[in-house]
Every structure is written in structure tokens, then in C-alpha cells.
Amino acid sequence: MDKKSDFKVEMNPELLVWARHNEGISFEDAAKKLKIESEELQELEHGRKKPMWSFILKCAEVYKRQPAFFLLPKPPKQDRKVLIGVRLVYSDTTEEYFDILS
């Protein structure tokens, strides 16, 4: 993305934290995967710095979310991940896996 088409994004920084936690990525690993310094990620996650659209696109890739997710007003209350090829569902609410057919 060229600099002319990149722009700052108004967003709820809680979405960055939620997406990182939901993917089970540590703070340090997230900074590495996003190719930014940990201090910058901390600024972004605490809302002291507004992200650029190119950063949102990178977060979408790393955290396996659609870019539009980062424009939501607040994070979802819960998320369930269905493991492909397995009958298990992970619940963030209970922090455990359970068989969806039982």
C-alpha cells in the first residue's frame, strides 16, 4: 500500500487486545508477527496512538479476522472457535473445549 492511500483509523483499541488474546498470541509474538516494536504495540493497544489502515490490514492477517472487525464499536462478548475436522468448540467464556455433538 502506498503512503498516499494509507490513513489513520479511529478504532476501539480493545479490539486489538481481544483479537490477540482470541488467537492465543502473546504480546511479544504479536509485535514480532506485526513487525513493529513492542512499545508501539503497547501504544496502539492502550489507545495512545491511532493505527494506520495498513496496520489494520496486517492485524487482520495475523489475528485471522476480517479488516472490518477492527472497526466494530466494541469487542464481542464471547467467541467460539470451531476446530476444522474436529467436533470440538472452544468457548472463551468457560475457557474449555466441549464436544458439539454431545
Description:
The protein is an alpha+beta fold and 102 residues long. It has a domain at 7-74: lambda repressor-like DNA-binding domains (434 Repressor (Amino-terminal Domain), Orthogonal Bundle). It is built from 4 helices and 3 strands, in the order ααααβββ. The model is unreliable at 82-86 (pLDDT under 50).
**Number of DSSP helices?**
4
Order of helical and strand elements? HHHHEEE
Strands across the major sheet, in which order? 1-2-3
Shape: globular
Q: Briefly note the structural class of the backbone.
A: alpha+beta
CATH class categorisation of the domain at 7-74:
Mainly Alpha
Strand content: 5-15%
- CATH level-four homologous superfamily name of the domain at 7-74: lambda repressor-like DNA-binding domains
Average pLDDT confidence is 83
Give the low-pLDDT segments: 82-86
CATH topology of the domain at 7-74: 434 Repressor (Amino-terminal Domain)
What does the radius of gyration come to? 15 Å
Helix share, percent: 25-40%
Q: Give the tally of β-strands.
A: 3
Separation of the first and last Cα atoms: 47 Å
Major beta sheet, specifics?
3 strands, antiparallel
Architecture (CATH level 2) name of the domain at 7-74 = Orthogonal Bundle
